[in-house]
Q: What sequence folds into this?
């Protein structure tokens, strides 16, 4: 048993050494009543310039009385302390366990004085993965997480968590009590069935019902603690968690809530009323100075959403809005909707910003989870997993009951400083970074391949479910898990192989600013086998005008008329 504990501890340490989760993530939560098939779904994009895309796996395990678990800070790898193990822990793949419980997160920070707690053991990442190993439902996960911070302290800044199971989707918002105190204050709200929610690095819970334990849970001192600190002196019914512990400002609206708006805007009408707010124009009330023009915590989509709809919510650069990143001069001649960091910049002592979209170049991995109540746990949960930029990734189906991870996603198959030919992270980055050079022309090919593969995966799902359920009923759970493992591994590895072929095709097609011609599905040659002359489309006229306006006659050919 001690050897097993040492192995698990070593594995977890490797994980924290290889992951630096950024404060730049995006989550959406879809209730079963808002989905086409009655599944609950959550999404997550782990956006960081130091994050490698790989898929973590922890098998179920039994533990003896007295066994301890080492806790390492998820962002830094720092050893924080130990907590007792429970008698049995559940298997976890990525951010989903074998009972279809899924957890995502975004960091909102909040009041700076609450961001540190000397001696605290539990950070936000450890809360997620410990809860997934111990909880069979979303409500149980909330209890595990909040009990742990009460007992062992909370070592992170403010955090929003998405927590789902086959029946419910919850948002939990938490912030520590700072040095000299222990634990955290928090509020959790169940998203009403038929509605969707989202968060993106800005606390979203404002006022909340205090006598509705079915739909709302909260720390007993969440209001009294704020009163003691002098941050709130109104009536309890007017208390707003976000406005007290993490007030929204220009950056919270423009860089964070704007991403929630973008996802909502894809699936619901009437979002235009928030167009001014997402530009950073936050209006405050007279009575308590709380923001009064914020996005609602949840909305009802115009129609029920499929898993493909939800994948597409994670693919956005503000297209069709006032913040459209394909339209301003920064997009260049090929409509590139990415801006290299930093997020803010100065000219003549004036600070300006780049937009912060859902889809961004530095994503390590992202996912969409499906939890489906009509199937046994190991079959019902699917983690649709992808690496790199959400707009150009492809989501592969990874069933939550698997017992091994695909080689293309496996921990140790390369890292951020070690290229691997068989790593999905590096293969997908090759394609995306090639596309960034001539984006408008190349991205349609990527999107077509993405739609083809995801369409096939989604179409296969009912048959795979049925086969797995039949095996489960006739041969037992272990046999079903083996079947699902083989299927998940084959699809992910096959997808990565297809993406490598796509990269090779795109390099040939678009090398050196040319666009090779094709005929009957092949690159075109003349009758003697020589490649025909490629297209050389150059730049759009508006870009040439920008150059002329900037340089005057510098490039003018002598004798040319005006």
A:
């Amino acid at each position: 048993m001690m050897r097993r504990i040492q192995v698990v501890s070593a594995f977890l340490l490797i994980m924290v050494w290889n992951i630096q989760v950024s404060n730049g993530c995006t989550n959406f939560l879809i209730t079963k009543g808002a989905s086409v098939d009655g599944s609950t779904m959550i999404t997550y994009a782990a956006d960081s310039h130091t994050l490698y895309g790989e898929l973590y796996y922890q098998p179920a395990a039994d533990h003896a009385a007295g066994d301890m678990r080492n806790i390492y800070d998820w962002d830094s790898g720092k050893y924080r302390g130990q907590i007792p193990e429970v008698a049995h822990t559940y298997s976890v793949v990525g951010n989903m366990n074998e009972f279809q419980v899924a957890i995502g997160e975004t960091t909102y920070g909040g009041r700076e004085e609450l961001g540190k707690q000397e001696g605290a053991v539990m950070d936000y990442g450890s809360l997620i993965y410990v809860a997934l190993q111990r909880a069979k439902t979303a409500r149980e996960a909330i209890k595990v997480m909040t009990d742990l911070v009460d007992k062992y302290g909370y070592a992170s800044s403010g955090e929003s968590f998405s927590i789902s199971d086959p029946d419910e989707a919850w948002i939990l918002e938490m912030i520590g009590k700072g040095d000299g105190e222990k634990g955290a204050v928090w509020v959790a709200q169940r998203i009403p069935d038929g509605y969707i929610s989202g968060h993106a690095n800005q606390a979203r819970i404002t006022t909340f019902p205090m006598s509705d334990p079915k739909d709302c849970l909260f720390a007993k001192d969440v209001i009294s603690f704020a009163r003691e600190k002098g941050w709130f002196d109104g009536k309890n019914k007017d208390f707003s968690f976000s406005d007290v512990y993490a007030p929204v400002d220009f950056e919270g609206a423009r860089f964070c809530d704007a991403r929630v708006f973008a996802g909502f805007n894809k699936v619901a009408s009437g979002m235009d009323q928030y167009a001014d707010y997402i530009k950073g124009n936050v209006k405050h009330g007279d009575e308590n100075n709380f923001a009064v023009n914020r996005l609602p915590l949840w909305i009802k989509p115009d129609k029920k959403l499929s898993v493909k709809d939800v994948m597409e919510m994670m693919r956005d650069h503000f297209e069709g809005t006032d913040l459209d990143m394909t339209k301003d001069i920064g997009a260049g001649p090929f409509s590139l909707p990415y801006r290299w960091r930093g997020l803010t910049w100065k000219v003549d002592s004036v600070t300006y910003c780049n937009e912060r979209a859902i889809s961004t170049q530095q994503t390590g991995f992202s996912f969409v989870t499906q939890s489906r109540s009509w199937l046994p746990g190991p079959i019902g949960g699917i983690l649709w997993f992808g690496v790199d930029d959400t707009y150009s990734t492809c989501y592969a189906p990874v069933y939550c009951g698997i017992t091994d991870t695909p080689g293309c996603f496996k921990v140790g198959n390369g890292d951020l400083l070690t290229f691997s030919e068989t790593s999905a992270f590096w293969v997908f980055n090759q394609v995306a970074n090639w596309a960034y050079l001539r984006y408008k022309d190349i991205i349609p090919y990527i999107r077509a391949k993405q739609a083809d593969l995801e369409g096939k995966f989604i179409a296969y799902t009912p048959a795979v479910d049925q086969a797995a359920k039949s095996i489960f009923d006739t041969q037992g759970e272990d046999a079903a898990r083996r079947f699902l493992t083989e299927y998940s591994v084959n699809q992910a590895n096959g997808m990565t192989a297809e993406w490598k072929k796509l990269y090779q095709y795109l390099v040939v097609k678009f090398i050196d600013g040319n666009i090779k011609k094709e005929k009957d599905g092949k690159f075109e040659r003349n009758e003697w086998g020589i490649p025909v002359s490629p297209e050389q489309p150059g730049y759009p006229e508006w870009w040439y005008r920008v150059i002329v306006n900037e340089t005057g006659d510098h490039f003018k050919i002598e004798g040319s008329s005006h």
Summary: The chain has a mean pLDDT of 94. The first strand starts at residue 27 and ends at 30. The CA atoms of residues 120 and 396 lie 37 Å apart. Residues 439-475 form the longest helix (37 residues).
